Structures are given as structure tokens and as C-alpha cells.
Amino acid sequence: MRAADCRPKPRVQSAGIDIAADLRFDRFEEQVAALPVGQHVTLPLFVFHPYEFAVGLYPNGAKEECRGWVSIYIMRQDQSEGVVSAECTIEALLPDRNPIHAGHVSRSTTKDGYPLELGLGVYDGWKRFAQLEDLRRQGFLLDDTLCLRVRLVPTFPGLGQVVLAPHKIAPVEALARQLGTLLASP
Length: 186
Known about the structure:
Layout: E1 11-15, E2 18-26, H1 28-34, E3 41-48, E4 51-58, E5 69-76, E6 84-94, E7 101-108, H2 109-112, E8 116-118, E9 123-131, H3 132-137, E10 145-155, H4 172-184
Antiparallel strand pairs: 1-2, 2-10, 3-4, 4-5, 5-9, 6-7, 6-8, 6-10
């Protein structure tokens, strides 16, 4: 596969650190034929200095147990310390309509009940995003392209975190004394 074919074509919209990107994996069937199980194509997703993220797509599955499935992961591409937690939704888009419409093939950390945990050199996502034959049969690979919408809401270490003072538990007697002096005051 030529490097020019792997260049990202994302449309990114962000408000704060809520990212939405539409990605296209062109010549998808060629990738299925060329890449064995465990091999992936990587497209850059976004950079929030010093963190860099990409989407890794395994057209034949990330592991042998996932043969016949498409695996998708969010990958850290930087060398920064710390773990970035993120809520993430990835959905396949139907490219046969204008404009592109979201289909019903999707995965979400909100539905799964846990966020992605992206440490240094770590990737997280879905080893069984969708069955390859289902994507073909349902029309997600028309024009030999897989289109994905990735929504990511990361929480970066040390940013936007407010440390609250621990609650002090006052004994009932101390509370009664305080209230008693307040009520006795003119």
C-alpha cells in the first residue's frame, strides 16, 4: 500500500477537548488482502500538546482469535508520561448517501461501562469492532472505503482536575455547642 493512500483525511471539530473526527480508510479490500491478522493501518487523530493520538485499524483483526473481525484502537503516539482517560465512541458511516450518515455499527465506552486508559505507548479500543462480512453485507464498504466517525473526550493528567478539601466530620456535641451560641446571640 502506498504511503499517499494512508494520509489522513479527517474533518475535526472540537470544543474544548471534545473531539469528533470523520476518517476514511480508502482501498479497504486491498488492505484486507495485504495485511495479515495483527497488522494495522494507522491514521493520526489529533494532537493536544504534548499528547498525540492516532486510530489503528486492523482489517483482519488484532489477534488470531479476532480473525474475521475488524479491530479498532485509539493509540498514544507521544512520549509523555501519565495516563489519559477518555470516553470514546466509534461508529461506521454509510458512504452511499450524501451527506454521509451514521450507521448502526458502533462501539462506545459509555455503553461498555469503562473509559479507555491510554498510557505511554498503550492502545485501547475494541478487538471485535464489527465482523468484516457484516460491514460488506450492510453496505459500509461501498466504493471500497470504510468511513468512521470517532468521538473522543479525553481527561489529561493534571488538567481540569480540582482537588476538593476533605470533609471534616464534626461530632454532634460540637455542632450543638455551635448552634447553641448562635441561637443565644442577639
